[in-house]
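Weekly modeling sync, notes
Attendees: S.R. (lead), two postdocs, one rotation student

Agenda item 3: backlog of single-chain predictions. S.R. asked that every request posted to the team notebook include the full sequence so nobody has to chase files. The rotation student volunteered to paste the first one in as an example of the format we agreed on. Action items at the bottom.

Example entry:
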Amino acid sequence: MKPLDPRLLRYSAAARGYLAVTVVLGLAATGLILIQASLLARLLAGAATGTGLTVLAGALVALVGVLVARAAASYGGEVTALRAAAAVKSQLRRRLVDHALRLGPSWLAETKGRHRAGEVTTLATRGLDGLDAYFARYLPQLVLACLVPFAVLIRVAFADWISAVVIGVTLPLIPVFAILVGLHTKATTQRQWRLLARLGGHFLDVVEGLPTLKLFGRGKPQAEVIGAVTEEYRAVTMSTLRVAFLSGFVLELAAALATALVAVEVGLRLLAGHMSYQTALLVLLLTPEAYLPLRAVGAQFHASTEGAAAARDVFEILDTPQLPAPNPRAPGRRVSLRDDTIKLSGVSLAYPGCDRQALSAVNLTIRPGDRITLAGPSGAGKSSLLALLLRFAEPTGGRIEVGGVDLTFIPVGEWRRQISWVPQQPYLFNTSVAANIALGQPEASPRAIGRAAEAAGAAEFIEHLPAGYATEIGERGLRLSSGQRQQIALARAFLRDAPLLLLDEPTAHLDAVSARRLEDAIAALTADRTMIQVTHSENPTRDIGRLFTLNHGTLRQASSPCLAPAPALLAATS
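Predicted structure, as returned to the notebook:
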């Protein structure tokens, strides 16, 4: 780990003011240390020679003031450093979450476990909390370690050049030993953080999948895995602490020997009458202060390594390229999915590390108001096509145009604001029904939320919940049935009122009655929108518009069978 990682400063502009105050207070503390030693040497020398208290009263009052000022500077430095840490953590967390969202779920799949959702969560919480030690303890001590030894050396040189030479020769021993110990502990500390991230990520994944694990009797093996990782983390942590304690002993021993060497040569010259008592006291008082910041920064280095290692992982994610930025020379016209046609021309998609393409030379024209169904077996490329439209992935071949404008020229946020996506397993949060429906439209009124729920066929069961729309539904909506969760997701999409609706097998896990109700809600929801629906069945029993089949990444239009008209169409023609 570098003594001061410049990336932490580059990614934390909000903390620079606090860091500047920390440096200023460090300078003040350095000056106060020199004044304190001079006053204390004068008082002790005066008391030893019998100088009266009235003569020394001024120096005594000044010493008390200096001690108070030094305590205030130390307190202020730690407070401002903690505020700097809070600013850095807040900014890094916002950047990390924003960047991970821009990278999309395909990035998590492509990393093959390197950055699982649970590990990213641990990184953004427990990992970045370790920066408190970095900013509040290590960084202030690093400032003092750069200032105090040189200031002490200069002050001692004016008082006694021989002692200054001894201090100057022995002073570099402390950082040399600290660097050697740091190189030895670097790999151990990184391994400790990796194990913590793995443990936290795996534990979160296990907790989320606990019902499934219990259902299939796989709870005990997962508990054994967690136990094994925990034991490994314990062993590595104890190894790191052992090295930290031993390194502290080495630094203390080196500083003690150096101080003793100065004390011996000062004592001999004092006995020989070659040095005044006050000068000897000044040198002896300042010598420990020269080594103290270096010892402290070596000790705090170990406390800060976890946060610094977590920050390096954050920077690794932030350095991951995301979707290309819009071309500044792109056409200035804004696209609207209510009026513009989406055209896929020879689009291919290949995921890193995969032998075959997920999509191969796909040609598809999506006009405003189209109803399109994509059918095919699992792994045929249906979800990959939706990922391209959601811009979770970028095509590796061909191009996607919207109203004649290349999709890469359109900002991701502007594009996604015109899309509603109902995945196969929609994510519901541990909050109220109303808050879950209003996720994409947080400023929506209770009346609008109620209309959206009614349109999705969810109003009836919501009104029978204990607290109605204010009912807490648990993490992932575990207090609701699969059909109810899908209806909440449809209500969310209806409230968003986006012109393009993407449905990823919304009725896959529902019984016939629930599926029929959901299909009725979808028919009402998509009356004036463009809809693309994914299904496994190539023989649907409802009006599905244009039917396309996907097989091994190849898209073909199927001849639509004779289908029973949807209830909405029957009502319109009767």
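Discussion: group reviewed the output briefly. The longest helix spans residues 219-271.
Action items: rotation student to repeat for the remaining queue; S.R. to check formatting next week.
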